[in-house]
Structures are given as C-alpha cells and as structure tokens.
Amino acid sequence: MHSPSCLFKGCSPTDRWPALNPPGGLASVSERVWVYRRCLYCNNGEADVQLIHQYNITSVPQPTDNLFREQVKTLRGRKLRIVTVPYFPYMDFERRTEEPGGIINPKDSVDTRLIYAFASALNFSFEIREEPEQTWGRKTNGSYSGMMGQLQREETDFSTISGATAERLKVVEYLRGYPSDLVTVISLKPSLLPQYLSLTRPFEGELWLALMVSVVAWGGVMWILQRTWRWFAGGRRVDFSTTLLYGWGALLEQPPPVLSVSNSGRLLVGWWLVFCLVITTGFRSSLVAHMTVQGKTLPIETFEDLVKQDNWKWGIEAWLFKGEPLDYFSKHTDPVVQKLYKHMEVLEVDEALEKVLEGGFTLVDFDNYVNIIVASRYTDARGYNPFYVSKKGVSIVAAFGWSFRRGAPFIHRFKQLITRLEDTGIISYWIEDVIARRVRENRAAAAMDVRSAKTDTTQDDNKVPLGLHHMQGAFYLLFLGSGVALLILVGETFTHTPDHCLGLLQ
C-alpha cells in the first residue's frame, strides 16, 4: 500500500516511498508490501508519513489492529496560535505593543498555567495574540466576530476562556475547563434600621393592627355587657371610654380597679388579663432581642429584589456587555431580565462602585472578578468592606473553557489532560490560588485606598449603654400622646362650656 506521488516539500518519491525502489529491484515488489500512515506532527511539528507495517505476501498474515488508528500523542514542537481576551482570574496579560491584536505576554492566571502545563505535556510551543476588539464574538448573518470569528475562519488554533452556546458549537469545538463564573449583584451592605422604630419592631404591622382592633372590640363587648347588666339589675353606669381605657391599661400591665360586679363581667376581665399576659411577655422578650442585636435592612440578593427597589439604578461594565452576556440580557424572555436590560447603564467598574457607595445603585458583574476588585481596593486591614456581593448569582453559560477550530486533531489529547487535572482538583486549587495571589499583590503594591480608609471600621463586640438615640421612639410616643390629649382637652372645653360663656368669647 503506497502512494504514487510525494505530498510533502523537500522529498522525492524514492525518498518518501522505499517501496518504489526496494532492495533487489522491481522484481520483488510483488512479494513485499510496505504500509504507511499519515503522521501530522512527526517532522518537527509538521505533517509527514510513518512506516507502520512491512509485509511479505507469502508469509503468515500480520495483525492489523493499529492500521487505521491515528492518534496524536505529542505535537513534537509544533507552534500553536492562540487568541485571547483579558478576564481575570481566568486570563490576564500585558501588551507588547499598543497596537490591538498583537502578541501579548501572559501573566499569572488559570489559563496561563493550563497553557504551560499542556505545552510541557504535549511538546508544543505557542503564540498568544490579543483579540483586537477584546470580544468573544457575536453572530451576524451566519458569521461570527471576535474570537469565535477567528476560529470559524481557522485563523487561529484555539482560544482561551470562553463559554459554550448552541450557536457557537456549530462552528467550533469546545473543551470544558471549569465551572462558569456566576453573574451577581453588588450593593451596599444592609444598614441599621431607624432607632425611632425600635419600640415597634418587636411586632409586625399585622399584629399591631390586631391588637388595636382587639382593645376596641373588647372594650365594646364589655360596655354592652355592663349596660345589659345595669338594665336588668341596676347599678352604676359605665361609659365606653372607661371600658376602652381599662382594656388598654391591662395591656400595659397597669389595669384600673375592676369595673364589673357581675360574674360574667369578671370572667371577661379574667380572660382579657390572660391575653394581655401572653402579649406583654412576647413583646418584652422580642424587644430585648431587638435592642441587643440591632436590626438591618434586607440585602439585595437576586434580580427580582433589584427591580423591586424604589428609585433604584443599576449598571454593568462595558467589556462584559458583549458576546454571550449581552445575548442573555437582550434575548431573555423573563420580564425581570428584560427590565434590567432596558434600564442598564454601561460604565467602568471604578465608576460603578463609586455610585454604589453613594447609594441607590447596584452593579451587575461576574462574581470572582468583582470580588478580587473589592478585596484589593475596598477592604481594610480587618477584612471589612462596605459592599454586599450576593451569593445567589445566575449562571448564564453552562461552563467556561477553551474553543478550538473545527477539525483540530489534538483536541482529544487536550480533553484527556483537562479531565485528569479536574479529577485531581488542581484546577479548583489554581482558581483559588490565583485569586489569593492577585489580591495580595494588589494590596502590597500600593497603600490602602483612601475610600477603604473612610469606610466604617468600628465593628466590635463591646457592650454599649443605651442612649437617647436608642430610646427616642419612647419620647416620640410621649409627645404624640400628649398632643392627642391636648386636642381632646380643647374639644371637651368647647363641649362643656356654657352658652353664655360662648357668647362672651364671641
């Protein structure tokens, strides 16, 4: 089995195909057979042929199980072309020149470590270039832009960090590398609830309303019961205001003298006192708990929480609002996501975090990426920062990994190696280690940012005595009650003033 022509440069038919000039002359060709196989990277990383069998047709047949088995084990020094975009902790680099699309110097990141590990194991060299527009790519009229476009046109061998989608898998082959980074929301940490509402927080609004209704209803029942008893048996007259104030006083643990002489009235009073005991005990214990641990506002955890905020704005980074993230927000059918997309502001991360610090603003970003920025620039020596990064992020792609041009013969070896690294936990360790190293480097390279120094670092466990700002709610209630009493006094004065006095006033 041989080819009648030479397919490679710098060779002659007799050099590449010994069967055309066998020892002993052409007469022995009919008795001997040479079997060759294509070898993609045998010739210093270039294509060549490899002799795998030499037969004699008169001898016993030889096994042919490896006749059609073409497997790339190493690349034998071949130089691979790689395209990338910056996205730390997965990929980071420095430009050699200011011109977009040039060769870059990779910095310590997850993909950088993977590339060097694969290059060592598979024996290949590489050249990494920046994608000129720093985009993953969007599909327009069947053709992709960005990194996906270069792979579709086979201008490069593979790309670093990218996400797999149904449309992309039609033009590239995909290597799953690590879990995708979640898209999350970053807002200010929950603030303390107003002190003047500390006396009302032990009970919810529904319970306060039920208590008010219960006091009025019990007072009305007691007043009707006393009037009925007085109509049958006689006795002193009881006003509705008296029964109402009795019920209120019992609830405040200061009941007036018993206002009923009938057994039915006493029974009603007794059960009301039991009810007041349960209510006051619950209120007292809940009040102590709320005074000990100050309540806070609810944090923004999800997209649904974000769109429910009043007079609230949100934004996203410009580089992130491209490719698959843009497709997710622009094409999603959920009304919540559509509202986010409609009112989304596009700005840089530092500007966005400054607006978050001012309040009324939330940044939508990738979890690992934004946590590095917060830990590096806005966290003090005690580990405190003013931002709340939600733990309920949304995965917009199934996984992160590398994309290869279709038909790349070495992708199977890459899949074998990535599976081994993932099974041993190396990739997860690298992600955590790269993040920790970068945070330490950022914080050691420059002094603590002024904005971090201005954050509230007075978080301690020391006991603080109650002050006026803690109990201001009680004074507000006192002033409110005094005002209501004054209005009632004015009304009673005009009601009971004799007619001749009114004439004098007029």
The strand count comes to: 16
Strand content: 15-25%
Major beta-sheet overview: 5 strands, mixed
Spans of at least 5 consecutive residues whose pLDDT stays below 50 are 1-17, 448-463
Mean pLDDT: 80
- Determine the structural class based on helices, strands and strand pairing: alpha/beta
Radius of gyration: 40 Å
The coarse overall form would be: elongated
Give the strand order of the largest sheet, numbering strands 1, 2, ... along the chain: 6-3-9-16-10
How many individual helices? Answer: 16
Report helical residue fraction: 40-55%
Distance between the termini: 130 Å
Describe what you observe in this structure.
Helices cover 41% and strands 18% of the residues. It is built from 16 helices and 16 strands. Helix 4 (205-233) crosses helix 5, helix 4 runs antiparallel to helix 6 (263-292) and helix 11 runs parallel beside helix 13 (426-445). With 506 residues, it is an alpha/beta fold. It has a five-stranded mixed beta sheet. Strands 13-12-14-11-15 form a five-stranded mixed beta sheet. Strands 1-2 form a two-stranded antiparallel sheet.
